[in-house]
Specification:
9 strands, elongated, mainly beta, six-stranded antiparallel sheet, about 140 residues
Length: about 140
């Protein structure tokens, strides 16, 4: 919920644009799966932390306020891993991450925000190498 009041106490002409970016984020997750042959179907979930930044502006104008701070949330996903060889693994994974930021009050600009939710959807592809196999 965003309210921006001008000096006269009326809302400025809109519409408003709200944009959020997350320059960095990470997670600590657990992973549980079911293996069959050379495949591993898994689910993952855990704690996430990041630094989302939200900018509020009248459409077509520069932001009149930008907020941002370290935020905590959660992450969960599913994936499939395949053992290409005994030491090389290939993986595809989808993860959803959700950050919640607290609201703010900007008295000089007469602006109030009740809080912002920052959802992130990732689709990842990767390879891994296992050291020490067969030793």
């Amino acid at each position: 919920m965003l309210a921006a009041l001008g000096a006269t106490g009326a809302l400025p002409s809109g519409p408003f644009t709200v944009s959020t970016t997350a320059k960095d984020y990470g997670s600590i997750r657990g992973r549980v799966g079911v293996a069959f042959d050379r495949f591993l179907l898994f689910g993952t979930g855990g704690w996430a932390t990041g630094n989302p930044s939200t900018a509020f502006a009248l459409t077509g104008s520069a932001p009149f306020v930008t907020t941002g701070a370290r935020s905590n949330g959660w992450t969960a996903g599913v994936g499939l891993e395949y053992a290409i060889t005994d030491t090389i693994l290939g993986r595809i994974e989808y993860r959803y991450t959700d950050f919640h930021t607290s609201g703010f009050v900007n008295v000089p600009a007469n602006i109030v925000d009740g809080g912002t939710r920052t959802p992130i959807s990732d689709f990842r592809v990767g390879f891994a190498y296992k050291f020490g196999v067969g030793l």
